Amino acid sequence: MSREDSELEGITLLGDAHTHYPDQYAPEVLETFKNKHPENEYLVTFNCPEFTSLCPKTGQPDFARIVIQYIPGEDMVESKSLKLYLFSFRNHGDFHEDCVNIIMKDLVRLMNPRYLEVKGFFTPRGGIAIHPFANYADEEHRNLAAARMATAMSTNI
């Protein structure tokens, strides 16, 4: 079951040989496509090992692996746009916890998923590693959100 050209009309970044890499926080680069299987409940995972942002106080770079998992509803995030969006944090000054929550909220606004979680595995600085976790669930998946949060708390992600 291939996609029709009409289903790809909103996808502008994929296949573009002249990609512009945003140098400031840019949620507007995020693009979606329609989920062809909305009747199925399935998990999509993005492993993003090259995330960088800046400390808002010192301007020093922070490095992390960001893991995004979601159960799609009607819309799904296009991966190249997600890559460019995450790249846009490179010059963005915010604390680790803020970055993870901003990513979660932007993706929820974009897709309205059934469930979504974002985990940040930040490289230690000053001898401390920070691993923020944020999640969202629609009404039907509130128990999943609570269970995932409890697991994250008990395993220190």
Description:
The structure is a single chain. By secondary structure, the protein is of the alpha+beta class. The chain has a single domain, classed as GTP Cyclohydrolase I, domain 2, CATH 3.30.1130.10. The chain is built from three helices and six strands; from the N terminus they run ββββααββα. The strands form two sheets. Strands 2-3-5-6 form a four-stranded antiparallel sheet, with helices on both faces. A two-stranded antiparallel ribbon has the order 1-4.
Characteristic key phrases:
157 residues; single chain; two-stranded antiparallel sheet; alpha+beta; four-stranded antiparallel β-sheet; GTP Cyclohydrolase I, domain 2
**Rg of Cα set:** 16 Å
CATH level 4 superfamily = GTP cyclohydrolase I, C-terminal domain/NADPH-dependent 7-cyano-7-deazaguanine reductase, N-terminal domain
As residue ranges, the low-confidence spans are: none
Mean pLDDT: 92
Helix-strand blueprint:
Blueprint: E1 32-34, E2 44-54, E3 61-71, E4 75-77, H1 79-87, H2 96-111, E5 115-122, E6 133-137, H3 142-155
Antiparallel strand pairs: 1-4, 2-3, 3-5, 5-6
